Amino acid sequence: MVGSPAATASAAVPEVVLEANVDDLDPRLWPGVLSALMEGGASDAWLTPILMKKGRPAHTLSVLARPDLVAELERVVLAHTTTIGLRRYAVDKVALPRETAEVEVYGETVRVKLARLDGEVVTATPEYDDVARVAAAKGLPERVVMDAARRSLVE
Amino acid sequence: MVGSPAATASAAVPEVVLEANVDDLDPRLWPGVLSALMEGGASDAWLTPILMKKGRPAHTLSVLARPDLVAELERVVLAHTTTIGLRRYAVDKVALPRETAEVEVYGETVRVKLARLDGEVVTATPEYDDVARVAAAKGLPERVVMDAARRSLVE
Amino acid sequence: MVGSPAATASAAVPEVVLEANVDDLDPRLWPGVLSALMEGGASDAWLTPILMKKGRPAHTLSVLARPDLVAELERVVLAHTTTIGLRRYAVDKVALPRETAEVEVYGETVRVKLARLDGEVVTATPEYDDVARVAAAKGLPERVVMDAARRSLVE
Amino acid sequence: MVGSPAATASAAVPEVVLEANVDDLDPRLWPGVLSALMEGGASDAWLTPILMKKGRPAHTLSVLARPDLVAELERVVLAHTTTIGLRRYAVDKVALPRETAEVEVYGETVRVKLARLDGEVVTATPEYDDVARVAAAKGLPERVVMDAARRSLVE
Amino acid sequence: MVGSPAATASAAVPEVVLEANVDDLDPRLWPGVLSALMEGGASDAWLTPILMKKGRPAHTLSVLARPDLVAELERVVLAHTTTIGLRRYAVDKVALPRETAEVEVYGETVRVKLARLDGEVVTATPEYDDVARVAAAKGLPERVVMDAARRSLVE
Amino acid sequence: MVGSPAATASAAVPEVVLEANVDDLDPRLWPGVLSALMEGGASDAWLTPILMKKGRPAHTLSVLARPDLVAELERVVLAHTTTIGLRRYAVDKVALPRETAEVEVYGETVRVKLARLDGEVVTATPEYDDVARVAAAKGLPERVVMDAARRSLVE
User: Fold this and answer.
1) Residue D32, class by beta-carbon neighbours within 10 Å (0-12 exposed, 13-18 middle, 19+ buried)?
2) Residues 6+ apart with CB under 8 A from C19
3) With contact defined as beta carbons under 8 Å apart, do E16 and F5 qualify?
């Protein structure tokens, strides 16, 4: 474990980052690659735009994963992209204790993710999926529902 | 070694990533920096656009290298860029077994890089340099030759 | 320590990289987050634009820090952004020995950061803050002062 | 109309580009904004990452639209984002005549978009949505289906 | 004027966009360039990362300006950057009528920018500069003050 | 012509910008596309990374061209990329009068591009191609030669 964890965060857990630089995949396939990785159990998966040798615009695919899922997620990377290799390194992951609250917005329930630091709520974020559901049901812009959910968070 | 490698990938080998954040290099020099690193034996070298303190657009230079080349490649970074420091960390690198096939396109030979997962070909990528050579020789767009090379891959 | 350090660089020192992917922060707050981290003692702090699951444009926040500052800087990340978790990994940091020279530009002093490799100066970079000060005082574009400072570096 | 159109392209038609720089929207809402614009009839809608004053990472939202839809799409931009203004300019749009072909892949039909220049097919692109449907139905990576569809295009 | 303006927006006014692709400026100077343009009266100024010929990472500098300021702002671009040329095109700019409200946060006043569409408030955004001032005065993260200001907006 | 040109710049000349959003080209082909456009007479050609609908990372290809070359360059875009359409708009291009000077660096000649504003030199940029040639001939990093060329510019 690197350094000492924030006193208020949950204990650090070991995870692994997998990375591959990919310069030859049909870009339309990237969203499906990220979905396949999340469905395969990845803690997170994302793309970073990079510039490679020979002036090529490319992407680094990164996957954060629990150690027991690494072998399987490596197979997803190798099957779903054109890369023939990847690199990996160990990280420590820390997370604040989190809870879920609920607020009423336009007569519907929206979950709010709460995180505490030293016992005090430091983050209160309405769940996007709930906001999108309410927005679609009410014919409102998602932004209007998100703003309303944030305003409902008055202590 | 982090996690266990995919059963079908070659054994993991240790490599090192070198990184430096650079905010004061004449941007025209970047392609030459990447070339110098590849010529110096880097396994890969690339740039990631970042936003640094004080609102500065900058780049992270990343170099993937075999451990025995690290000292020499550090010197390339320090001589060819304006950075006065860098960071490094160890990674495990895994790669699929690869072969080279050849296809005929417009009467010319184009190599195709094949990679196997569980014995089955999962990636078949025409070599760009060959495609570019044929395109130049025939006066065709590279895309036309690349498409033709992909179509020639019918089993 | 990974590999052997460049003979001419100072000995490697251990540092830690903290990273968090953030997709829900008001983007106007990012410059203040980087400032808070630098004021908290970070060796460096920067943002990398990424593409996350569900098609979301987001940023990876990265912080380079001495091990003894990790716990405090984690708290800054958790308090100043909306993330509820982060990952960290150890790196070795190497830096060239550096000196500060001074040049006269438009009658004002501008510091120049010098770095040596094998005893020879490989980098001589005028300090931006000094350049900005002189430019403001003289009513000149910063570029004009920076160019003049570079030209003053003739051995 | 600017310049003369390529002889082989269909006649140019007037469209309008709407643009707004946005630095204060919850980034999770961007995919929904693009969807709302496409559903509203936009010819295209996309985001470009930019760096604004005060060191702020932000996005330019761009919308390509037929002139008769401009007023309505402006309302979508103003309702679905936090911007309070936008700019617009006229463009000429040219497009190659296009046809749809079909190929059989894994026993399923995949449409292929064909475009001709001077009567000759210059682009043959399998439809992503069809590829994704077949991949899901067959439990295959989308890439495998896309490659198979491309190989089926042999004249 | 392109298309007809949204009925609820103020009348369109003509502005001009100036653009230059720059690949050889010391990147540390970019924030000062944007500041000089804003001080020179630009309606907005921003950077877009691009990839130019020969594999060079570069930036497009964009400036939005009132027609009467174009000649002066062109001089700022030419004096403060290394470009020796630029391009410009006319745009129509539309903006929602806006008002300023005030909320009390931690005993301090924070202005809120309101915009109306069809008479209804669609956007209510706390001013960043006020939030930053209160955060600095109270020793709080800017995010905490921004969230509090948003929550104070309950109708 | 939009606005009045800077008094010191050469008269504005009309040019055209061609743009296409491309989400399905093998990224390795992009450098060749830019080269083909420059060889076809484009005044400039560049790529901007964008985020399109359905979460797709893509690029806008932009081409700046003289009006008499538009038809031919449109054909290059349509033949060398996968796009089946593009948009174009007129711009005014202004440029400072420029001269070429020469400096001696490591016994070799390096051209320097000079531009004047109000008769005074505001930009003096060593030609990259000359710097690269000297660096290769002398076995020096390009940066060392570029710095030396800049220092030789002392009036």
Assistant:
1) buried
2) A91, C60, C61, C62, C63, C86, C87, C88
3) no
- Comparing CA positions, the residue from E105, E115, E108 lying closest to residue E152 is E105
A80 CB burial (10 A radius; 0-12, 13-18, 19+)? buried
Amino acid identity for residue C57 in this structure? P
Measured CA to CA, the distance from residue F125 to residue F123 in angstroms comes to: 6
Buried b (16+ CB within 10 A) or exposed e, A105-120: beebebbbbbbbbeee
Q: Is A58 helix (H, G, I), strand (E, B) or coil?
A: strand
* Phi (first) and psi of residue C150, to 5 degrees: -65, -40
Angle at CA C16, nearest 5°, toward C14 and C19? 165
Rounded Cα gap, residues A62 and A42, in angstroms: 10
Which of B115, B96, B99, B110 is CA-nearest to residue B140? B110
Interface size between D and F, measured as CB pairs under 8 A:
98
Closest chain C C-alpha to E144 CA, distance in angstroms: 8
Q: If we measure between CA atoms, which residue out of F58, F62, F63 comes closest to residue F43?
A: F63
Three-state secondary structure call for residue D63: strand
Distance CA A92, CA A3 (A): 10
Q: According to DSSP H, which parts of E48-92 are helical?
A: 70-80
Query: Nearest C-alpha of chain E: how many angstroms from D40?
Result: 15
Task: Check E150 against A154: CB less than 8 A apart.
Answer: no
User: Do C89 and B89 make contact, defined as CB atoms within 8 angstroms?
Assistant: yes
CA distance, residue E40 to nearest chain D CA (Å): 13
Which of A34, A47, A96 has the CB atom closest to C85's CB atom? A96
ipTM for the assembly: 0.92
List C-alpha distances in Å: B16 to B70, B88, C6, C43. 7, 7, 14, 21
| 3-state DSSP of chain B | CCCCCCCCCCCCEEEEEEEEEECCCCHHHHHHHHHHHHHCCCCEEEEEEEEEHHHEEEEEEEEEECHHHHHHHHHHHHHHCCCCEEEEEEEEEEECCEEEEEEEECCEEEEEEEEEECCEEEEEEECHHHHHHHHHHHCCCHHHHHHHHHHCCCC
Q: Is the CB of A89 less than 8 angstroms away from the CB of B94?
A: no
- Asked if F91 and E89 count as a contact pair (C-beta separation under 8 A), the reply is yes
Predicted TM-score (pTM) of this structure: 0.94
φ/ψ of F6, rounded to 5, equals: -55, 135
Kindly report the average pLDDT of chain D as a whole number. 92
**How much is the pLDDT for A79?**
95
Supply the DSSP string of chain C, one letter for each residue: --S---TTSPPPEEEEEEEEEESSS-GGGHHHHHHHHHHTT-SEEEEEEEEEGGGEEEEEEEEEE-GGGHHHHHHHHHHHSS-SEEEEEEEEEEE--EEEEEEEETTEEEEEEEEEETTEEEEEEE-HHHHHHHHHHHT--HHHHHHHHHHTT--
Neighbours of chain C (3+ CB pairs under 8 A): A, B, D, E, F
| CA diameter of chain B | 56
State pLDDT tens for residues E45-88.
999 999 999 999 999 999 999 999 999 999 999 999 999 999 99
Which residues on chain D are in Cβ contact (under 8 Å) with B153?
A: 147, 151
How many contiguous H segments (helices) and E segments (strands) does chain E have?
Answer: 4, 7
Model confidence band, residue A57 (pLDDT cutoffs 50, 70, 90): very high
Q: Is C139 exposed, middle or buried (0-12, 13-18, 19+ CB in 10 A)?
A: exposed
The 10s digit of each residue's pLDDT in E20-49 is 999 999 999 999 999 999 999 999 999 999
Chain A residue with minimum CA distance to E155: A151
Q: Which range has the worst mean pLDDT, A50-59, B55-64, D93-102? A: D93-102
Q: In this structure, are residues A123 and A113 in contact, taking their beta carbons and an 8 Å threshold?
A: yes
